[in-house]
Specification:
Blueprint lengths: L5 E6 L14 H15 L4 E6 L7 H6 L4 H25 L4 E5 L8 E2 L2 H9 L3 E5 L9 H11 L4 E6 L4 E2 L11 E2 L1 E2 L1 H7 L6 H9 L4 E5 L5 H6 L6 E3 L1
Parallel strand pairs: 1-2, 1-6, 2-5, 3-4, 3-5, 6-10, 9-11
Antiparallel strand pairs: 7-8, 10-11
Helix pairs in contact: 1-3, 5-7
Length: 235
């Protein structure tokens, strides 16, 4: 029996690179699709938001001379590319998926609305919501929090390259200590870079818990859904 009935899964664009330096690693993409299909088979309703950092990140583009608004719009398009790739991988496995876009982009995807997305979820389709919030200056973490609240998700699962939240970056500081659970306020007070503050505040105000876990280890998504204590719970 799955721990949650409806989830919002946030996937990292950078993680889609796998062992590549840029773009989409087909092996990693297939691993993600197989894990997602597995928990769908457990009766879980799944909405997904994917970042676009493996293709283009608006904020880093702005630091290199791009106009910030146009850079963020390019980043939004990168998330659409990733969403289409994941949708295709899921459908190859026989799992129905539907791509929604934050701004009208027919026939690439359907224009997102919470009602349409919830209807798709109730039909057993994987709902992939692309294009961020549709606005510049907002991250895909904020889009994930917003979409999670809108579709009535019970939890936001943030799949990353590390196995939870630490006192410092574990890739840089070997003495960093992992949290099993941590409050929204403590994340803010400690200045931890889990998500941007807008996303964290949105989750806090709407009582949407977050589980940060290592999505790149095959089988971890199922473990989270089974209630195993991996990753870090933000409450």
């Amino acid at each position: 029996m799955a721990q949650y009935k409806r989830i919002l899964l946030k996937l990292s664009g950078e993680s889609l690179m796998g062992k590549k330096q840029y773009g989409i690693d087909e092996v990693r993409l297939q691993e993600y699709a197989a894990q997602i299909k597995e928990i769908a088979g457990m009766g879980v309703e799944i909405a997904i938001v994917i970042g676009g950092g493996n293709i283009f990140r608006g904020l880093s583009g702005a630091s290199k001379g791009f106009d910030r608004v146009k850079g963020d719009q390019m980043g939004m398009l990168a998330t659409v590319i990733n969403s289409l790739a994941l949708s295709s991988a899921l459908e190859t496995l026989g799992q129905k998926a539907r791509v929604y876009t934050a701004v009208p982009m027919h026939p690439i995807g359907e224009h997102y609305s919470p009602a349409r997305a919830i209807e798709s979820l109730s039909r057993g389709e994987i709902v992939i919501i692309s294009g961020g919030t549709g606005n510049p200056f907002f991250t895909t973490d904020t889009a994930s929090a917003l979409r999670g609240v809108e579709v009535g998700a019970e939890v936001m699962l943030k799949g990353t390259r590390v196995d939870g939240i630490y006192t410092a970056d574990p890739e840089k500081d070997p003495s960093a200590v992992k949290f099993d659970k941590i409050s929204y306020d403590e994340i803010y007070n400690r200045g931890l870079k889990v998500m941007d503050l807008t996303a964290t505040t949105l989750c806090k105000e709407n009582h949407l818990p977050i589980i940060v876990f290592d999505m790149d280890t095959v089988g971890n998504l199922r473990k989270v859904m089974n209630g195993e204590n991996i990753g870090t719970l933000v409450y």
